[in-house]
Amino acid sequence: MTTPIAVTIAGSDSGGGAGIQADLKTFAALGVYGASVIAALTAQNTKGVAAVHEVPPAFVTAQIDAVFSDLAVGAVKIGMLGNAEIIAAVAAGLARYEQANVVLDPVMAATSGAPLLDPHAIDALRDLLPLVLVVTPNLAEAAALLDLPEAKDEADMLRQADSLLALGANAVLMKGGHAEGAESIDLLVTATASIRVIADRIATRNTHGTGCTLAAAIAAGLAKGQGLTESVRAAKEYVTAAIAAADRLAIGRGDGPVHHFHRWW
């Protein structure tokens, strides 16, 4: 029997709603064994980020070597990395262990708006694009990666996805969750196809960790042997249901988390 395994390389959210904690919850909810490489620590709750402590790159490397030398990793999700030196350590680790099913969520800021990436590290983040299977930027992240204004409509989103492909990305999931309209429309774009992934937009303030959760859910699908399109569609369904159930939870006094275990609780 083979156990599907996914690894999250990201920051820790002490409030439990995003980052490493959200990723491990997502893996567990979707039937995947989760392991982790912690790239940063945050003092964080539902109201915002109070402090960030970046893990020394050598210790990030030590965690990567410990996990990947022992576990049969089926997929990797990358989130908050913090600075260029940590990004370089992660890139070297991905190459060393020949990881193909890599999902990059190019985290630059928390839901509250607090910065989570050194602005000087955006070039290093761009250099990761050729090493991953799919990158999952929201509108602000895509604009920052391309040094362009945010996309205003689907045509803009498609053009920016094509520009990210030109930078070396293998596939781009442009997330429209921060746009307007009754539907939340994401675009999965490759060199040969563009697929609309649509869900109803849900009115709730409890959306902390949605980007982390979506990327982790895609990685979980890949770890189970699903193709990219199937993994993205299943991840969108899971996250939409987790958002719809978020108000069943009473967590904190700010923007609460999505309900990762909505199928059981």
**Class by SSE composition:** alpha/beta
Q: Number of helical segments?
A: 8
CATH architecture: 3-Layer(aba) Sandwich
N-to-C series of helices and strands:
EHEEHEHEHEHHEEEHH
Shape: globular
The level 1 CATH classification is Alpha Beta
Give the termini distance in whole angstroms.
Answer: 28 Å
Strand order, sheet with most strands: 3-2-1-4-5-6
Number of strands: 9
Mean pLDDT comes to 95
Radius of gyration: 17 Å
The residue fraction in helices comes out at 25-40%
User: CATH topology, anyone?
Assistant: UDP-N-acetylmuramoyl-L-alanine:D-glutamate ligase
Could you list the spans in which at least 5 consecutive residues all have pLDDT below 50? none
How many strands, what sense, and barrel or not for the largest sheet?
6 strands, mixed
Strand percentage:
15-25%
What's the quick description here?
With 265 residues, this protein is of the alpha/beta class. It is built from eight helices and nine strands. It has one domain (5-248): UDP-N-acetylmuramoyl-L-alanine:D-glutamate ligase (3-Layer(aba) Sandwich).
Question: Which SSEs are present, and which pair or pack?
Answer:
Layout: E1 5-13, H1 19-29, E2 33-45, E3 48-54, H2 57-68, E4 75-78, H3 84-96, E5 102-104, H4 122-128, E6 134-135, H5 139-146, H6 154-166, E7 172-174, E8 183-189, E9 194-200, H7 210-223, H8 228-244
Parallel strand pairs: 1-2, 1-4, 4-5, 5-6
Antiparallel strand pairs: 2-3, 7-8, 8-9
Helix pairs in contact: 1-7, 2-3, 3-4, 5-6, 7-8
